[in-house]
Amino acid sequence: MAAAFTAPFSPSPPFASFNRERTTRISFLPCSSAKFALSPLFFEKYGRNKLPIVSCNAMSKNGDNVEISQEEEAPRKFVWRDDKKPRVCILGGGFGGLYTALRLESLEWPDDKKPQVLLIDQSERFVFKPMLYELLSGEVDSWEIAPRFSDLLANTGVQFFQDRVKLLHPSDNLRMGAPTRSSYGGTVHLESGITIEYDWLVLALGADSKRDVVPGAAEFAIPFSTLEDAWKVNEKLKILERKTFGTNTPVCVAVVGCGYSGVELAATIAERLQNRGIVKAINVGNEIIPDAPPGNRQAAQKVLSSRKVQLLQGYFVSCIRQGEDNRSSGKQTDMRDIGNTPGAYDPDKLLLELQPTEKGQQSQLLEADLVLWTVGSRSLLPQLEPCEPYELPLNGRGQVETEETLRVKGHPRIFAVGDSSATKDSKGKLLPPTAQVAFQQADFAGWNLWAAINDRPLLPFRYQNLGEMMVLGRNDAALSPTFIEGLTFEGPIGHAARKLAYLYRLPTDEHRLKVGISWLTKSAVESVALLQDAVTKVLQGS
């Protein structure tokens, strides 16, 4: 059963350090991440290319001295707190990575086998991606759905380090012998130059948007999968809203893709812009969210229609380019223009060339102020530098092949979850890259790591589809649970149910409590405002 796993409170562990030949004592102010501000004198003494780096325990809030050591030539090496206890390194702090770390923290361990857990992510924040849409509607604040790892892990034994993974060097291949110790699993190389030896590794690097398949998409289209993406889209919408304020020119937003993400984006932005904008959704198929339960699809179609979202179905985007005047440039087009004067284009706008998927339809040219890209994703694993002969078994999508226990094939000390894992269901079909799948995989990965470390049998992962949810506006959503076939909660009821479900899924008890209080406060304020408006209308009518 999928659940949000929380970690019990425990004293903050001591700082870790990096092994160097010469050591220096430096006193730091209280910190909450692995990044420090050092004085110019420090750089003059050690040199910028020889900067000693320390792993600041994200849980420590005091001003204790931190030991830093420096070595001239050898690579910087992370030193674990206890060389005798298992060392678990988790790459990626999304749903799969963070929740695996918290699951490990929540389990009961023998004193000599409780692992040291290091979580590495390129961002300082965990992002609850299913609620990024609420940032555009103003329903949530960034801290509620994107808390800092340092805050989430403040009362756990999990260490956090912010960096990018450059290279994996596993040494647990079944055809190879371990080089130094019986429990040695391999080495992780980070872009900062730090190397980390591990006994057990969890791959949870996730995926990013795939826009390089369409000319101009990487340059002009904005994806919607990270906190930075949401901030960028929100800022772009604010600029367009200010630019068109008081004019008769509507803001035109083109959403590429009509899966869950595309439909949720289109519905949210259409509600925000109302009669000040036009939202056009481009879908390669003839049906939106084809894999969704019928109730969710019908609710989405009803909302999109009521908000006058234009669906361009049966088309794919072949090119995105800057607007221009084709007549003055001598260029000709036989495409049918949508929503603009044929032949004349605003240079500040973007042009999308649409090609039909079926014969008999005409190519079209779409003009937009903002293009949002929601189709295609790619695993981050293939982007790591190759390390022959230690390469991992990847499928055509760049996901690592795993056993049913989530252990990587041929590598007994590596587990993979989330978008990094090519896990299949009981029918042999690849599981979708959703938060629900990652939640459940994190539960099993944490347990199977416990079992492997304690020489117990591992459990096969079995995915249970608990239902599907989607947001359709500030007070609108659709939720189709699987325990009652054909049942769909939509509108305000679906919205409340979805929000409660995600509140329960937030990572820790402490954060869940803070967010719950914040949401209750906002609801109370909105209710009072609505009551005041109603009373005012009654008084004015009398």
Automatic annotation (TrEMBL):
<dbReference type="GO" id="GO:0042372">
    <property type="term" value="P:phylloquinone biosynthetic process"/>
</dbReference>
<dbReference type="GO" id="GO:0003955">
    <property type="term" value="F:NAD(P)H dehydrogenase (quinone) activity"/>
</dbReference>
<feature type="domain" description="FAD/NAD(P)-binding">
    <location>
        <begin position="87"/>
        <end position="442"/>
    </location>
</feature>
<keyword id="KW-0274">FAD</keyword>
<keyword id="KW-0560">Oxidoreductase</keyword>
<comment type="similarity">
    <text>Belongs to the NADH dehydrogenase family.</text>
</comment>
<dbReference type="InterPro" id="IPR051169">
    <property type="entry name" value="NADH-Q_oxidoreductase"/>
</dbReference>
<dbReference type="InterPro" id="IPR036188">
    <property type="entry name" value="FAD/NAD-bd_sf"/>
</dbReference>
<protein>
    <recommendedName>
        <fullName>demethylphylloquinone reductase</fullName>
        <ecNumber>1.6.5.12</ecNumber>
    </recommendedName>
</protein>
<dbReference type="InterPro" id="IPR023753">
    <property type="entry name" value="FAD/NAD-binding_dom"/>
</dbReference>
<dbReference type="GO" id="GO:0009507">
    <property type="term" value="C:chloroplast"/>
</dbReference>
<keyword id="KW-0285">Flavoprotein</keyword>
<dbReference type="Pfam" id="PF07992">
    <property type="entry name" value="Pyr_redox_2"/>
</dbReference>
<dbReference type="GO" id="GO:0019646">
    <property type="term" value="P:aerobic electron transport chain"/>
</dbReference>
<keyword id="KW-0521">NADP</keyword>
